[in-house]
Amino acid sequence: MFWYAILLLFAQKVVAEPYTNDDLMSFVTLPDARAVKFDIETLDRNRTAPGYWFVSPYLHIDPDGDSSLYEQYQTGPHIYDEDGTLIWTGTMQFENRNVFDFKAINSFDNKTYLSMILQYSHDGRERGYGMILNEKYETFRKLPLRKDLGVFDIHEFNVRKDGKSALVTVYLSEEISLAEFGRPNEKTFLETGGFAEIDTTTAEVIYDWRSYNQIPLSETNEAGDYLISMRFTNTLYLVSGLDGKIMWRLNGVNGGDFDSDFLFSKQHDAKFQESSGTRHVISFMNNASDEEFQEETISAAMIVEVETGTTPMTARVIKRYNRPDEDLTRLRGNSQVLPNQNMFVCWSQGGYISEHSPEGDLLMSAKFTSPRFSNYRAYKFEFTGRPTIPPDLVSSVWGSDETNLVTTIWISWNGATDVASYNFYAQASQFDTPVFIGNVSKTGFESMFMASGYVDWVSAEAVDHDGNIMGTSLIQRTQFPNWKQVGWSGYSDQPRPQDPSRFLGKGLGFFNDKADGSSFSSSDDTAEAQNRKATQTLANTYDAIRSIGGVFALILLLAVMSGIMASYLLIRGWRVRLYQRIPPKEERYTEEEEPLRPDDD
Ligand SMILES: *[C@@H]1O[C@H](CO)[C@@H](O)[C@H](O)[C@H]1NC(C)=O
Ligand SMILES: *[C@@H]1O[C@H](CO)[C@@H](O)[C@H](O)[C@H]1NC(C)=O
Ligand SMILES: *[C@@H]1O[C@H](CO)[C@@H](O)[C@H](O)[C@H]1NC(C)=O
Ligand SMILES: CC(=O)N[C@H]1CO[C@H](CO)[C@@H](O)[C@@H]1O
Predict the structure, then answer these.
(1) Separation of 244 CA from ligand 2 center, angstroms?
(2) Does the beta carbon of 110 sit less than 6 angstroms from any atom of ligand 2?
(3) Higher-confidence residue: 413 or 156?
(4) Number of domains in the chain
(5) Is 141 part of any domain?
(6) Is the pTM for the entire model greater than 0.85?
(7) What single string gives the DSSP state of each residue in 534-597?
């Protein structure tokens, strides 16, 4: 009995701390994807650099095994704007696989591409790839690592400026003899690190360097030498591109080869910022701690200047950007000097990122609302995304009788940057002309439009800031509930979709989330005026509560809406059930089947 009580207590404690899922965004238009939310703590819009955040949240650093439980996709490459609004999720494209070092690159034909490391698969069937995507999010290069170099390491996939080659880190288990330790007949396995330079067209290995150490990062300078950062020796090395010999050491066990005014430890992401003759400017992340030890109390992004032409050689710290919450980043992380000289830093755990002015002012800090996810590296880049897939649209209708039917349309366009607004159309049938039923500004990753009445064969256009049509959705049927179950009490057994052109003419109206009512036909008859007033109130209310977000807002909106409707329509027994049903693939119509021509009338 006693043990039973203890057990019960324990069970209750476990139950009392459940995982919630409101730390993830969800979308009507992309039901299979969830995206981490950002909690933005600091944002000085006037001084942050232009650009989007490039992040790749992961749950565990090693791939998770397969599960037969249904699970929405959550990890992989993502792009956000600086308000934390999702721009692109690649989680479905990369099947929830872990992705690392996701960034934008300008190494090919003057266009911006995306590069990343696709981690090896859990079942071992794939050994990982260096991926390069174009601005349509299509695969441009998929580069395997030569078999004898093991799996594609997650630390670095660095496409060189000319686009011809890329630097990758390599981890290998090598069997070595213990002869030099006085045991000539014994052998052991040693985990060794190194790097390889691979051809970005053929994946051929151009250069390959090994050490008996563990190497997180590398990059080369103009002289063709390689900068190596070893976190377990707290040292940066310059390795000759000619013979692989170590030319100098910065920091480390014996203090290195420099007269230096700073120390660092467990560093990550060392990069040449400038390199000319004997002077090098190097940025890196000084995390000052690892899982076991800590040497300082605060991690920092550092920029240091190294002079190799003097005797002794000198190393001076130029800038140091402390972690804003004054905590330690014990693993991973990176720093990026932005074109305007701001410093962008990823402190890794919990997706913590920050941006700093060159003077060291904190301009932005944000982290995932979810403590469950982390992010190895984050970057900020300007980018134009033009997906080939059309915008995703979902339309559904509800109501309790003919007087209060409402069609709700959800729209998103995964990866499209610069969308300003959406135009919506409905048709009387598959063969009728699309009729413009209204427009909304893009409000987030996903936008919503509501039309009074029951419209079907719905489609939308994405419009840019200059009014150009950027893309058109497929035509979707409006989903409807089981009318009996939601308490339908209209004249007919069940409602039928209305002809949107006749509809507009009669002034029954559609409403816009813009309060100017610009999409209404101008007639001064009283019913229309009343209708406009009502829908305008509704639109204003919708605007006001939109920022609250989520289901709560929707419920509130429904409550307000029923009040308004009751005031000018004869309402009997308003009973609304919110429902969503996503059409299975075969219910969707292809553009070839359904040419969509916007009607300007
Ligand atoms: C940002 O810039 C705008 C326009 O230059 C200015 O009106 C505003 O006061 C600035 N805000 C801050 C916080 O500096
Ligand atoms: C890239 O742009 C520059 C300047 O606009 C131009 O001179 C060059 O030919 C372009 N290169 C390619 C490959 O399009
Ligand atoms: C909707 O379209 C009208 C007419 O083209 C335009 O004046 C208005 O700005 C648009 N509204 C939005 C939110 O795009
Ligand atoms: C192991 C090691 O080098 N730790 C150093 C970390 O960095 C701080 C200063 O940046 C030094 O005080 C530690 O000795």
Answers:
(1) 35
(2) yes
(3) 413
(4) 1
(5) no
(6) no
(7) HHHHHHHHHHHHHTT-HHHHHHHHHHHHHHHHHHHS------------PPPGGGS--TTTS---
Q: Which of helix, strand or coil describes residue 527?
A: helix
CA angle 72, 73, 78 (to 5 degrees): 140
Q: Is residue 512 part of a domain?
A: yes
Average pLDDT of the chain is: 78
pLDDT single digits (tens) 63-114? 888 788 888 999 999 999 999 999 999 999 999 999 999 999 999 988 999 9
- Range of the structural domain that residue 488 is part of: 392-528
Phi-psi region of 235 (alpha: psi -120 to 50; beta: other; left: phi over 0): beta
CATH of the domain at 470: 2.60.40.10
50, burial (CB in 10 Å: exposed 0-12, middle 13-18, buried 19+): exposed
CA of 225 to the centre of ligand 4 (A): 26
Residue with CA at minimum distance from ligand 4 atom 7: 264
- 416 lies in some domain: yes
DSSP conformation letters of 460-511: EEEEETTS-EEEEPPPBPPB---TTTTT--SSSSS-----HHHHHHTT----
Nearest-atom number in ligand 2 for the CA of 110 is: 1
Answer whether residue 457 is part of any domain. Answer: yes
Helix (H, G, I), strand (E, B) or coil at 56: coil
Of the ranges 179-188, 379-388, 575-584, 589-598, the best mean pLDDT one: 379-388
Separation of 44 CA from ligand 1 center, angstroms? Answer: 9
Residue ID of nearest Cα to ligand 2 atom 3: 110
If you take atom 8 of ligand 2, which residue's CA is the nearest one? 110
The answer to whether the CB of 162 is under 6 A from ligand 2 is: no
The CA-based angle 85-141-335, given to 5 degrees, is 50
At residue 385, the pLDDT reads 97
Instruction: Give the tens place of pLDDT for each residue, 494-547.
Output: 999 999 887 654 333 444 433 333 333 333 333 444 444 444 444 444 444 443
